[in-house]
Amino acid sequence: MDSTDKIDCDKHFNGQAPRLDRRALLVGAGVATAGVIAYPLVRSALTKPQPVFLARHQTYDGPLARTITDGLLAAGLEPTSLQGRRVLLKPNLVEPSRARPHMTTHPAMVIAAAEVFRRWGAEVVVGEAPGHVRDSQMALFESGVGPAIDSEQIEFADLNYDDITTVANRGRASKLATFSFPSTVAEADLIVSMPKLKTHHWVGMTAAMKNMYGVLPGIAYGWPKNVLHHAGIPQTVFDINASLPRTIAIVDGIECMEGDGPILGSMKRLGLIAVGLNPTAVDATCARIIGLEPRRISYLKLASRLGPLDVAHIPQRGESWESVASPFTILDVPHLQELRANRGVLVS
């Protein structure tokens, strides 16, 4: 790997010298306009290639930590810069059900990611604000993530009820002027979006960027966070991602959801893990894999201001996206049909 592709966390997580403490950086972010602090990161994201690593033939009882390590290194993460940093793993536990394990991020993925970041000296916490259930402990139990992280003595942050820090909306695609982020989110040095790859009945797909709806607390946005829905799903997906601390992505694409996602769809076995340091590039790649055109997905079209959508600017590491592509079924409704890169199988 070219050393120039590696990302130094001290420089890129906060855009400031590392001697500044986390609180000082947070305050700075809160008062900055979109252009002051975000611009260097946006410029970097748009002008530099953003690699995405893909691994096929993955299983939940396989060497996931090895795969995630390979992916992060191939994408350009510099492990030494994580020493002593606070890393928040954000799985998707939207509405866990033992009858639909393909709805939520598998516990094995969370444990494997925690193992990798701990090995690199980071302090790891798992955090989630389930969008459809008020009882986060129930969500942990039903998803299997709770017992798994307990067994590894990994801290859990209930983002629905965490202390709140108000930050400026640095995207400004929606009418929302600010966001109420849980303090665990606002103070994280690195957020790792760990979505389940699924179709979505409103916006076509949910992956790394849509998963960030789950960092916003229910005590401020309600269940299922209709404040965001009413402000526009594509717009708020973009705004949230533009306003968060540095975020990267590890996608659980082993057992996915197709059809009537993100809750009621059917299982789609893909055996895939996708890793990247730019969530826009990761989601654009995932869209191509499941048979959707990234530029037709409304939130990704907005997100082209945060990262690349074009294949030419997303170097492939590991497998090529063409070699793992497998179109997902989507609902037979016009606003989803038009997202198809090539018309495929439709369900009604």
Structure description:
- The chain has helices at 9-12, 22-31, 34-47, 64-75, 107-119, 136-143, 145-151, 183-186, 218-221, 226-230, 233-243, 279-289, 298-303, 321-324, 334-337; strands at residues 52-55, 86-91, 123-128, 155-158, 164-168, 178-182, 190-194, 196-200, 204-206, 247-258, 266-276, 316-318, 330-331, 346-347.
- It is of the alpha/beta class and 348 residues long.
- Strands 1, 2, 3, 4, 7, 8, 9, 10, 11 and 12 form a ten-stranded mixed sheet that branches. The chain has a two-stranded antiparallel ribbon with strand order 5-6. Strands 13-14 form a two-stranded parallel sheet.
- Helix 5 (107-119) packs parallel to helix 7 (145-151).
- It is globular and about 45 Å long.
- Residues 1-40 have low confidence and may be disordered.
